[in-house]
UniProtKB/TrEMBL annotation:
PROSITE patterns on file: HTH_ARAC_FAMILY_1, HTH_ARAC_FAMILY_2
Alphabetized SMART domains for the sequence: GAF, HTH_ARAC
Organism: Aquimarina rubra
InterPro entries reported in the protein's UniProt record: GAF, GAF-like_dom_sf, Homeodomain-like_sf, HTH_AraC, HTH_AraC-typ_CS, Tscrpt_reg_AraC-type_HTH
Keyword Mitochondrion: no
Keyword Transmembrane helix (UniProt): yes
Protein name as catalogued: Helix-turn-helix domain-containing protein
Matches recorded under Pfam families: GAF_2 (PF13185), HTH_18 (PF12833)
Membrane-spanning residues: 6-26, 38-59, 65-89, 101-122, 142-159, 180-203, 215-233
HTH araC/xylS-type domain residues: 462-558
Domain of life: Bacteria
Key words, A-Z: DNA-binding, Membrane, Transcription, Transcription regulation, Transmembrane, Transmembrane helix
């Protein structure tokens, strides 16, 4: 078949789509992967048609080498579309878990294409022209259609399961949330049916040949692809902006909780510095720091916790905590992170530094921090385990008296900046508060106005994090930037129950509201249990009966 107005328009339309999608892919590559698969699908789907039309143009007769670049994109585009749906619905684990299986048809036919190309260049030495034609025109196309239909059905199942997770919304809200993506999948199912009818037409009408019967089908595809490109890009941008706005609101609320929790620890000037610097990172570190020290009542425990957890969290190369020995008038290494740490809270070749000696001794004597850009040019520098380039030393002061020094070195020249200085000063101040508590035999109490508990309650009520069946002490402690031990004690004291019962109380309330809501009458009890965050029917029944005294079925049937 030669060049004609129809295949020329289709070719130019597909080529235009590929160029636009490639440009969009380049722009949005670093954003959410949803964009990558969206544009990747459009590119590969149109390359399928472009390759077929190049064959129609007879380009292989003049440039046979171009066949080497023909790839079975028809097995790649449906995979990208499935990946797009999974990432759009935040079900990416489904795609990742089945990714290897999804790519098997593409890999298989890529190998087959390679063999066929070599066979053509060898003038059909391995496979006859007749067999080659059957593979190229029938087996290839029929298997591609079958693969598309299977993935379309699977996509609909993914959407249906996603809708079941939206139990907190009304049916109208659920439909509104998934209508866009369901419409797209439905259109693809329709296109698959048209594709199947076109293939059947070839069997009914033996006088028909070539790709001309596909032209109306491809024109419909083109119209849809341009619409999908425009409306899809617009929709994804709206979803991304809405998500960023929601996340920003939640993070702002959490940030306010953490900042208010530091009000009683720092002066107004220090809090202003926190706001000015990197509030989210700083408050997260300080929150974890202050709570990880909660149950530490021995000097050794406090100091090692600082270097093992808090300083390590800053991703520094090393950190040493010196404590003043007044009887000898020296600074003694008490805890270390990095090369000096032998494990099991033991320091490699601990050294003593006289007051006023070296950078650390100078800081202990003056009570002022020192940040040295390059210690090579500082005569005061004392080499410990290995020689490094920069150093930051901050005094730890209790009642205006230096009791120790927080010291860190780095192999990079000028590594420490204003951010490090601020953090070290704040951590030193928190350390001093804890050391003062130890000295007066006093420990921090968890009171009813505990801000971390308020933050946890906020995340449960507003963000509904209890719906995650994998939620545990470790995951929440990381979320709140506090130690898991502190979290456990806090929940036990302020909720009057253990952590598991506390979380399950929210899940049971969620399930109870759905069991009585007519909008969820078609939901099974297991569906409601899974949506509330339980991972099995038996666990849900046990917890429900523990809290209500009756089974979920009895509760649902009770007027």
């Amino acid at each position: 078949m030669k060049v004609n107005p129809y295949n020329t328009v289709i070719f130019l339309g597909c080529l235009t789509l590929v160029v636009i999608a490639l440009w969009k892919l380049f722009i949005f590559w670093k954003k959410d992967k949803t964009y990558r698969f969206f544009y990747g699908f459009l590119i590969t789907a149109n390359l399928v048609i472009i390759q077929v039309l190049l064959m129609d143009f007879g380009i292989q007769k003049s440039y046979s080498w171009i066949l080497a670049f023909f790839i079975p994109f028809q097995y790649l585009s449906p995979v990208y579309f499935t990946a797009f749906i999974c990432y759009y619905l935040k079900k990416e684990e489904l795609y990742v878990r089945n990714r290897n299986y999804l790519f098997l048809p593409f890999i298989g036919f890529f190998v087959l294409y390679t063999i066929l190309k070599i066979n053509v260049f060898l003038d059909y030495t391995w496979i006859s022209r007749e067999v080659f034609t059957i593979i190229h025109t029938e087996i290839d196309e029929n298997s591609a259609l079958t693969f598309n239909i299977i993935l379309s059905i699977w996509n609909l199942m993914i959407i249906h399961k996603y809708e079941n997770t939206l139990g907190r919304l009304s049916f109208n809200q659920v439909r509104k949330k998934t209508q866009w993506i369901k419409t797209i999948v439905a259109i693809f199912v329709t296109f698959n049916v048209i594709w199947l009818l076109t293939i059947i037409l070839f069997f009914i009408r033996e006088d028909i040949s070539g790709h001309f019967p596909y032209y109306p089908y491809w024109i419909l595809y083109l119209l849809f692809y341009f619409t999908f490109l425009y409306l899809g890009s617009k929709h994804l941008n709206e979803v991304a902006e809405r998500k960023e706005s929601e996340e920003e609101a939640v993070q702002k609320a959490i940030q306010n909780f953490r900042m208010s929790g530091l009000n009683h620890m720092f002066s107004e000037e220090e809090l202003e510095l926190i706001h000015y610097d990197k509030p989210s990172q700083i408050t997260g570190i300080l929150s974890y720091f202050s709570t990880s020290l909660f149950d530490k009542n021995k000097l050794e425990d406090v100091l090692w916790d600082i270097v093992e957890n808090c300083i390590a969290y800053l991703q520094l190369e090393d950190c040493i905590i010196y404590i003043v020995d007044e009887s000898k008038n020296v600074l003694v290494q008490k805890a270390a992170f990095g090369n000096k740490n032998l494990g099991e809270r033991s320091i490699l070749s601990p050294i003593e530094i006289s007051m006023g000696e070296g950078i650390v001794g100078q800081v202990a004597q003056s009570g002022e921090y020192e940040c040295v850009y390059n210690v090579t040019y500082d005569e005061r520098y004392v080499v410990d385990d290995i020689s490094r380039k920069s150093e930051l030393a901050v005094p730890i002061m209790v009642d205006d008296k230096v009791v120790g020094v927080l010291d860190s070195e780095h192999s990079q020249e000028g590594f420490f900046n204003e951010h490090h200085i601020l953090l070290f000063q704040l951590i030193a101040k928190l350390t001093a508060k804890k050391l003062a508590q130890i000295n007066i035999k006093n420990t921090t109490n968890i009171t009813n106005d505990n801000l971390y508990f308020k933050e946890l309650h906020f995340l449960m009520k507003e963000a509904k994090i209890y719906r995650d069946s994998n939620l545990g002490l470790d995951s929440i402690s990381k979320m709140l930037k506090i130690s898991s031990n502190y979290l456990s004690q806090m929940v036990n004291k302020l909720s009057g129950s253990n952590f598991s019962d506390y979380v399950n109380s929210f899940r049971i309330d969620d399930a109870k509201s759905k069991l009585k809501d007519p909008k969820f009458s078609n939901y099974t009890i297991l569906d409601i249990a899974l949506e509330a965050g339980f991972n099995s029917k038996s666990t849900f029944y046990s917890a429900f009966k523990k809290y209500t005294g009756i089974s979920p079925k009895e509760y649902r049937e009770t007027p």
